[in-house]
Write the structure tokens for this entry.
Amino acid sequence: MIDFIQNTLDGLTAGASYALLGVGFTLIFGVLRRANLSYGPAIMFGAYLATWASFSFKGLLLLAAIAVAGTVLAGVYVERLCFAPHRRGPAAAAMVASFAIWMQLEEFATLLLPRHLYAFPALYEGGPLNFGPFFVRVESLLILLAAVATCIAGWGILYATRFGIAVRAVIDDPRAAELSGINVGAVSLRVFAAASAIGGLTGFLIVASHEQVTPMLGMWSTLKGMLAMMLGGLGSLPGAIAGGLALGLIEAHSQWYLGPQFRDFIAYLLLFALLAARPRWMNTRSAY
Amino acid sequence: MLRVHDLVTAYGKIEALKGVSLEVAQGSITCLLGPNGAGKTTLMMTIAGVLKPKSGSIRFSESEISALPAHAIVSRGIALVPENRLVFPTMTVLENLHAGAYQRRNGFAEDIERLFVRFPRLKERSEQLAGTLSGGEQQMLAVARALMSRPKLLLMDEPSLGLAPLIVEEIFAIIAELHRDGTTIFLVEQNAHMALKVAHRFYLMEQGRVTFSGDPGSLAEDEVIRRAYLGSSKN
Amino acid sequence: MDEYAIGVLTSIGLLSFVAASAYLLLTAGELSFGQQGFFGVGAYSGGIATAMLGLPLPVGILMAMLFGAAAAALVGLSTLRLRGLHFAMATLAAAEMLRILFELFHWQMEVGGETVGPDGTQGFRGIRWVFERGVEPLGFLFIVYGMLAFMVLCFVFLERSKLGATLRALGEDPQLAGMLGIDVLRLKLAVVAAAGALAALGGALFAHHNTYIEPRNFDIMLGVHSLAYALIGGLGTVFGPLLGVALDLGVLEGTRFFQGYRMIVFGGLVALLLVWRPRGLLDERFVHWLRTRR
Amino acid sequence: MRRLLLLALLVSPAALAQKTDAKLDCKFTGTDFVYDCTIRLNRGGEPLAGAQVTVGADMPSMPMAHNIKPVRARPTKTPGEYRATLDLEMTGEWAVKLRIAGPVRDQLILHYDFTESGTVPRK
């Protein structure tokens, strides 16, 4: 029983970063109706920029800011080059363009820091908190906290501000939004930048809690983000959070009970089964 | 107020508008009639800035607007109530209205109050999701949302489409009321009979061209209806 | 031709099969991130047929295509009603599951004094039918391009036939296609299976060209690359994906002096190209213009 | 199943011949991603001399799109030993492809981690 609870704890804390990635993906998908394959690589670009900066100074807040700025910069570049020109065109073109930029961003990053693995200043020096037989790493708690804070902030913006109304209008029906006087292009760009900022923060938290950076961060965060978005029912923000946490739990438990190589298998199997069964809520038109 | 001159809009190679010229006088109700596929909706979309014309000009109170994007045209004072009344289904009625007034910083409260007086049904449903409203109610919401941007010229694309006769009466009553308040209205309408009752001037369109223009008295009503639905026999 | 040029041309030929399979699905209006899984199924079954069961290469290739089509049909059956990103993510999940299954797949036999066969993450060594038969690299190149020519012929006939038109209708608007009496689900299943067989054909040839395969060869990169080849080359004709592969691998050689910056240049070029031609270089409009000009 | 195996033996006599195997040891030359490699080939126990060996390399992921321009290895004084300089795109794990021609035609794939100092066998 102890293992079960410990695994659940581990699953939830891992799931927090997946949830954040899922939220970033869903925001972009909600506004643009396109999956952005460069989302992970943009995060990696931000994280690599922060790693490069960490050689000269160790201030965590400053490194976080650099990671966020780098990811937003890369994100806006991707939006302008791959998504803005294809707003009315076929979805495949935008996705393949974002894949091409994925390759480009990854090569930028590996040129900046060619080695296979880099150390990164730790998010928290002390050991894990333990209460009773269970222990939770403080870094994971910080990520969970960040996830909750992002959701509350996101919820507040979407529901209580004028900008939130415009975002939801664009998500609901871009043509009607345009006719209501909303500059759909500008709203999409700003949402894209916000999603990239969330991604940059997530990237920073992940590399700081693992205390290392690898070139695999790009592909890893794209896959986990898309999985979280899909598990939660494409296009729904609370769904993405639930999907991310569920993914964390699935991985933690299947790794413990079935062995490490089944970790990803079970996650993909569940997504495939969910898609095949095609429940009603799976294809939610609404984004919340 | 609105002068369209030799407007050409094409979808790829197919020209939907083949040089359309028409005028909407200040404070008038001008109506556009024509068979399906005559290019009526294309014209509305081009004026509203959703579609980019290939050539020709659209002058709105002395400034050229054919190159402006849709949101800029709304800020100039033109609002379109689109065909099949696009509303934001997952947002409440009130939020739909706020979306309509996105361009303005203030003065929402009185506008909403005034609209609720004019559209009492919307007041009852103000917290309801727009997607759950009936066709007629959605049409009223679409009109109300367009009015939230305080337009000088209101474009309406077949507002009576798919609505029960009783509601169509209500829609045309509202149109007359808006006219009395000084809003200029450019109306695309299938229901020629109702349209001719309120219109000061009307145009007939076929295959992307204006084929007749005049005021309601100038052409016998049945002739207008025949040409509006069956197209003129000459060409 | 020196051996290096033959190697590049063979790679272009091999990747063209998996790119054509992604193209086939794209013309039917579906985006697949999973063709690399069936490419892997073809590689493993082709390798097993020749290296372990001692069957000749042609039989191995046929077996590979059968297994590829069967695997694709299985995935297709459970995802028939999905469209757009749902279908793409389902194929991605299926291909990743196949890749993990390859990692768990251990089956070795004693053949001619050696242990031969897939050994999980260690991969599958010794698929040396081509070397044992003394087939020169040039000979293998002809085999690959012979099959490629056959595939292109099939596509050219398909595109001119009624079935080709039905496929395009399905791609343009499945609802409308359904209304015209096209059995959308059955046709889509056939397309998914055919695309699986095509990818598997490429996989079997790859296994024999490389003499060694491992699960990581069949990861998401190959899937997204084949999609990119199909779209960059153009959705108007089967020569589109072939052109896409030639551009990538050709540019790879052409930009030898770019060495470290290849992807920066190539990635940017692809994104710009797609802005100009969202349906690729040889898109439908260009092909139509070509056909009607004569 | 037994019968099939016998058939396999008859059909492919060449399979009876011994297998060539190889060891690779590379040192980092100081300039980015360029390695000096010595290759020791032997077959059935003795060193395989007088073969033309070309050395190529590829990445496990996206197998055909990374290949490096293969180089021809130069035989050294000691039989069965060859030397070549490999210019890779990046460090990390590479699948080195040895194509052997001359007395015997074969192809071997060896997995190595190319690091700052040299190579560490993976498999």
Notes: The longest strand of chain B covers residues 14-24. Chain B touches chain A at residues 48-50, 69-71, 74-75, 79-80, 82, 86-91, 95, 98-100, 102-103, 145-146, 149 (CB under 8 Å). Chain B has a mean pLDDT of 85. Chain B has nine helices and ten strands.
